[in-house]
Amino acid sequence: METTNATRRRGRPRKNVSKHEQRLMTAILNSNVTIGVVGLGYVGLPIALEFAMKGFDVVGVDVSEEKIKALQGGKNYIQDLSNDDVRTVVKKTKRLTATTSFKALSKCDVIYICVPTPFTPNKDPDISHIVNATQGIAETLHAGQLIILKSTTFPGTTEKYVQPILDATKFKVGRDYFLAFSPERIDPGNTTWTTKNTPVVVGGVTKACTDLAVAVNKHIIAEVVPVSSPAVAEMEKLLENIFRSVNIALVNELAQLCDRIGVNIWEVVEAASTKPFGFMPFYPGPGIGGHCILIDPYYLAWMAREKDFVTNFITLAAEVNESMPFYVRSMIEREVAKQPVTLEKAKILLLGMAFKRDVDDLRHSPALKVAELLIEDGMQNISYFDPYVPTVRVHDAVWESRRTLTPAFLAKQDVVVITTDHSSFDIDMIVRYSKVVIDTRNATKHIKGARKNIVLLGDGK
Ligand SMILES: NC(=O)c1ccc[n+]([C@@H]2O[C@H](COP(=O)([O-])OP(=O)(O)OC[C@H]3O[C@@H](n4cnc5c(N)ncnc54)[C@H](O)[C@@H]3O)[C@@H](O)[C@H]2O)c1
């Protein structure tokens, strides 16, 4: 009878522990393994750094020559990481080496795959980076290696797309090489919950795969939670992100209703938050962005369609969230219409281009979408200020951030829009000197008294 992945990973004690599993487990427990990380971005570099700081030899592989050159020079390019730590592990202790060559992975015992999982222009999943990275790993795959996929993806990716590429070598999963999915939970900009103290989930193709992946993760993460399969781990990650997407969509919809009925949605959410159980606050805004919350729900919706199933919640949430930049555009144009200036000539200042507070990540930023929509409407005098984003491409043009924000410049603008609530923004100065401030983040909530020039998304005043 054929042994399926499902029967191989059932939790009963295993009689036949392979010599490769035994050897790898001993090496992991003795901290005597070399770690490989494929994809050195927001997810991969922090993992590489954690292991290198713990004294492991780490090989980082990325297709971006720019990133590899920076790392080889000891230069950090991820905002949350310490420049000193990166320089130390590259230049001083030499624990971290970086290369564009997959051949370097041949000396690794454990390899994390942390490559992007974007969508196509039609919003179908694009797992080509995962496939390419796996093919690179397969070229030097050898017995005793553990591969851990971290990239967020639809259930079944690990076993249906990654495993077949590795199985095409002469090695057998669970006996010779080991494969698991362990989704990433890093929240860039969050200093409370970091790689170290945020629990992670692990689902291996076999029980041996899970055990090994749990053991190695424990070196850098305080709590590791095993689950029964890669598909469970893949699905739970999507649940986390869809949960956020749906709840944000709910308050975004209610914010639009509140605008019609003159009730402040922010006050409503604060009031509801006083309930000590059964409620978790989510806040409206100009839309959702980043590499996760916006994209991941589409991965599941695509997969569901294949099974003749429509994920109505996901689709509706995406529709509401993606309408928000359009809603902000109409708020801006309404404020312009109240002034003696044409749309073409109106001076609009967008405060914040990054997709969320205090980060430099522009991916799918709603502020960028707002800028694009205003350009499409013929506006020609738009500028932005974002201390984290020196330049940005809007359609075909490259815009530069203003270096500073002065009262004189604010006073010259017809409409100022708080698109991202970076904590360094001097909100009092912004409100004092601007003619009109459209606040999409409730950044002005502390301002008491006359708020006549503030137009707050979701309060209908
Ligand atoms: N950024 C986050 O906050 C976050 C959080 C949780 C999960 N994730 C998930 O983690 C994955 C990675 O996200 P990220 O934000 O680190 O992306 P990123 O774009 O910051 O980094 C990915 C890196 O992989 C490299 N790369 C692409 N194809 C490659 C290949 N074939 N071989 C080697 N390197 C390759 C890119 O050059 C890039 O440096 C995604 O699936 C994402 O959904 C991201």
Structure description:
By secondary structure, this protein is an alpha/beta fold. It folds into two domains: 5-228, Rossmann fold; 252-456, NAD(P)-binding Rossmann-like Domain (Rossmann fold, 3-Layer(aba) Sandwich), CATH 3.40.50.720. Helices cover 39% and strands 14% of the residues. It is built from 15 helices and 15 strands. The protein has helices spanning 5-8, 19-29, 44-53, 65-72, 83-92, 128-139, 157-167, 207-217, 230-261, 265-272, 296-306, 312-337, 366-376, 407-412, 427-433, and strands at residues 34-38, 57-61, 96-99, 110-113, 146-149, 178-181, 200-204, 224-227, 347-351, 381-385, 391-394, 397-400, 415-418, 437-439, 454-456. The strands form three sheets. The chain has an eight-stranded mixed β-sheet, with helices on both faces. A five-stranded parallel β-sheet has the order 10-9-13-14-15, with helices on one face. A two-stranded antiparallel ribbon has the order 11-12. Helix 6 (128-139) packs parallel to helix 7 (157-167), helix 9 (230-261) crosses helix 11 and helix 9 (230-261) packs parallel to helix 12. The longest helix has 32 residues, at 230-261. It starts with a helix and ends in a 5-residue tail after the last strand. It binds nicotinamide-adenine-dinucleotide.
Question: What is the topological layout?
Answer:
Elements: H1 5-8, H2 19-29, E1 34-38, H3 44-53, E2 57-61, H4 65-72, H5 83-92, E3 96-99, E4 110-113, H6 128-139, E5 146-149, H7 157-167, E6 178-181, E7 200-204, H8 207-217, E8 224-227, H9 230-261, H10 265-272, H11 296-306, H12 312-337, E9 347-351, H13 366-376, E10 381-385, E11 391-394, E12 397-400, H14 407-412, E13 415-418, H15 427-433, E14 437-439, E15 454-456
Parallel strand pairs: 1-2, 1-4, 2-3, 4-5, 5-6, 7-8, 9-10, 9-13, 13-14, 14-15
Antiparallel strand pairs: 6-7, 11-12
Nicotinamide-adenine-dinucleotide binds next to α6.
